Amino acid sequence: MSSVTPISQSQPLFTKTQLRKPPGTPIMVFPNPNPAAKSSSVGGPSATKAKMNTAVVVKATAAATAAKKRYPGEAKGFVEEMRFVAMKLHTRDQAKEGEKEAEGPPMAKWEPSVDGYLRFLVDSKLVFETLEGIVERPAFPEYAEFRNTGLERSESLAKDLEWFKEQGHTIPEPSSPGVTYANYLQELSEKDPQAFICHFYNIYFAHTAGGRMIGKKVAEKILNKKELEFYKWNGELSPLLQNVRDKLNRVAEVVLLLLLLITLNVLMSFCVHLCCPSFWFLTKTLCFHQSWTREEKNHCLEETEKSFKFSGDILRLILS
Ligand code: HEM
Predict the structure, then answer these.
(1) Helices H, strands E: what count in the chain?
(2) Does residue 222 contact residue 247 with C-beta atoms inside 8 Å?
(3) Is residue 242 part of a domain?
(4) Residue 250 bridge partners (DSSP)
(5) Which of 5, 161, 253, 304 has the fewest CB atoms within 10 Å, counting from its CB?
(6) Which atom of ligand 1 is nearest to the CA of 95?
(7) What is the per-residue pLDDT across 264-286, written as a single tens digit (0 to 9) for each?
(8) Looking at the domain assignment, is residue 162 inside a domain?
(9) 130 lines ligand 1 (CB under 6 A)
């Protein structure tokens, strides 16, 4: 079971959530660090100015390099950043990149019960139904991208529960861990898209990784190796996952289209001596919808721990 202690303090990537920069704020401003030095240097004011410009550029480059280093996985795209944070939150016996100490018994020593596993499946179904409902009726347009990805699980879970019923088992009502998480997701999806996307990623991707390992282990122990629908996907899983990774990266990153529009705007202003307000408006709208600021990305990454906590509570039902 994953632990919920905070991520290493040596990682300065979790800053407090900030509001988006107001429109029109310059991207980088380098104020003169020491105005008094301007006229007193050898070589006169222009040489001083040149030196200072070089210093500012060197500083800015160093700062940019440092910023790059601060976000592991950044070069490969935002999903890689989310993955990096998630992997560290595993315990060492769960995944080799895990950094947490194990709290309960390792999975190999789990003693699951059918009743506990049913509680886990019922609560998981509620969580997946909630996610699928959220993207079906999106509070933010970005969510609509994640309809019909092929990763949806609620229908397959419904089939599995039907199978258990046919075997004579009573299907329980959803319990507190599932209800709490489903309510949290619903609320988050309406007010905090970056945090919501973090849960979306972790829930679907955890299930295809550790979730499948768990399903196999439990099936060996209590289901005579029966493979549930929950662990089957239509077609190859890997392209489905890659498709969702690409969409997640597109939601979080500035897209080429945006750069193209900005270039076109500049060309129009210079060559045609015409500034089309609606064109600028379109660019700004795209900018708003398609890219997250560093603060928003960090806010999303920060939410990973909560995702592990909520999902961990549901996983623990298997042993209840
Ligand atoms: C007993 C519990 C768990 C086990 C045994 C487990 C195990 C694993 C393993 C073996 C991987 C693959 C590592 C790799 O690619 O080399 C993985 C990936 C991952 N896990 Fe877990 N995990 C568990 C719980 C969780 C939980 C609670 C979450 C979050 C809700 C989570 C989120 C993820 C994510 C996001 C990945 C990356 C998947 C990818 O890159 O495709 N895991 N896990």
Answers:
(1) 12, 0
(2) no
(3) yes
(4) none
(5) 5
(6) 10
(7) 766 766 665 555 555 555 555 55
(8) yes
(9) no
